[in-house]
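Q: How would the structure tokens look for this protein?
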Amino acid sequence: MSAAFTPAFRRFLDDLGPVDAVGIEERVAKYGTRSIKKASKVFGLKLAVSMVDLTTLEGKDTPGKVASLCVKAQHPHLVEGVDPGSIPAVAAVCVYPSMVRHARRALGPTSTVKIASVATAFPSGQAPLSTRLAEVRAAVADGADEVDMVINRGAFLAGEYNRVQDEISAVVEACGASALKVIFETSELETYDNIRIASFLAMRVIRPGDFIKTSTGKTSSNATLGNNQVMIDAIRDHYLATGVAIGMKPAGGIRTAKQALTFLIAVKETLGDDWLTNRRYRFGASSLLNDLLRQLEKERTGAYQAPYAFSEATESY
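A: Here is the predicted structure in token form.
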């Protein structure tokens, strides 16, 4: 039975109210029309750099590749004539659990860059709960500051909301002091109403400083302005009702500086300046960082740089 026809779905929709899909699309279309002046654009580009979770999640990941990622994360753009301190480090590196210890060694004890690790049978979430929790505990034990979990979409779509919420609660406990980001895989949730319900299911059991996240980046459709808007609207509503501030992470498909700035406009206009920090907003990305750097160089020099002027984060040693 589809979640849309379950009693649990109807109860949640009565409680939360349905999403006006047409209104969402009209709203997000306007964000791209905002004009950003030079000083504000440079500020926004640097802010976006500081919000990136620089990611490698491939079967061919190696300790050397992760070490290279960590160098890029701490020093995104080391070139002659540019003050190294003028471009911030990224927020985090995001790797598989088996690579956490290599990232910890590469970053060292004083780095400001966090280590995030995907877990809970990422990206499918299709494993026994005991296995998923063991993976979380292993990642934390190896030094993960943050854990990105995937919800059981099959259980959600079957209307088993209590099960989904109980599993999120169990992961919160397994995380200990490490922050949690709850991934919905929005393309598989299919509707804005489902995304809103999933947002509240998660936010009611996670902690201040934890995040909700759109996607794994492993499906054909990932973060969009529409599903980002539904989720930040839910964060606003939850905050106004409870005073609990939850973070947001769109992930997958955000590849250009222009896209990133549009997402930040959505955040500013919906949640305000308090969310314009990497403590409350992140971008899950691998290719976005170099385009942000390219645009910063354009603002500094007046000319676009060739792609080879920027180091590849995934380059192996």
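The longest strand covers residues 114-119.

The mean pLDDT is 92.

Upvote if useful.
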